[in-house]
Amino acid sequence: MSDEPKTFEVSVIAFREDSGWTALALEMNLRGYGSTVKKAIDDLVEMLGAQVSFALQKGHPESVWNRADDKYWRMFEEGRRNRFVAEISGFEPPTDLVADMVPLSLLAMQHGETWIAANA
User: Fold this and answer.
1) Which residues are paired to 11 by β-bridges?
2) Does residue 97 fall inside a structural domain?
3) Counted domains in the chain
4) 1 in a domain, yes or no?
5) CA-to-CA distance for 21 and 110, rounded, in angstroms?
6) What is the distance between the alpha carbons of residues 60 and 52, in angstroms, rounded to a whole number?
7) 99 lies in a domain?
8) Whether 23 contacts 11, CB under 8 Å
9) Residue 89: helix, strand or coil by DSSP?
10) Residues 6+ apart with CB under 8 A from 22
11) Which pLDDT belongs to residue 106?
12) What does DSSP say about strands 30-34 and 20-25: parallel, antiparallel, or unpaired?
């Protein structure tokens, strides 16, 4: 097994909720929270790493795949479209909804019969 990092891009939206930010990984329906977009995404990446590691340890990597509701996918499409239009028009993209692909770097290592995944 190669110990080169494996990268998977996750579709993520971040939006204001109450007094903070929520980041949602659409393919896995997991959320992270924080006082800023970056903190919410960092929290989400940590959650994703833990979820993938647990699934690998249990021998069920497919169990992490849990599609978010369609309304969040529509929010993602709207956010990506708005960012694209703003950037090609020379404007600042809206800041109330952030939609982007976030790389999740996983290093899969075999220790005996146990597989783990960790943020690389």
Assistant:
1) 101
2) yes
3) 1
4) no
5) 36
6) 9
7) yes
8) no
9) helix
10) 14, 15, 16, 31, 32, 33, 40
11) 61
12) antiparallel
Degrees (nearest 5) of the Cα angle 53, 56, 119? Answer: 30
Place of tokens 């994703």: 48
**What tokens appear for 114 in the block?**
């146990």
| DSSP-assigned letters across all residues of 61-79 | GGGG--PPPHHHHHHHHHH
**Which one has a higher pLDDT value, 55 or 66?**
66
Owning domain of residue 115: 6-119
Sheet containing 20-25: order of strands:
30-34, 20-25, 6-17, 97-111, 114-119
Question: How confident is the model over 11-65, as pLDDT tens digits?
Answer: 999 999 888 999 999 999 999 999 999 999 999 999 988 888 888 888 888 888 8
Higher per-residue pLDDT: 25 or 95 = 25
Token couple for 76: 């993602």
How close are the terminal C-alpha atoms of the chain, in Å?
A: 16
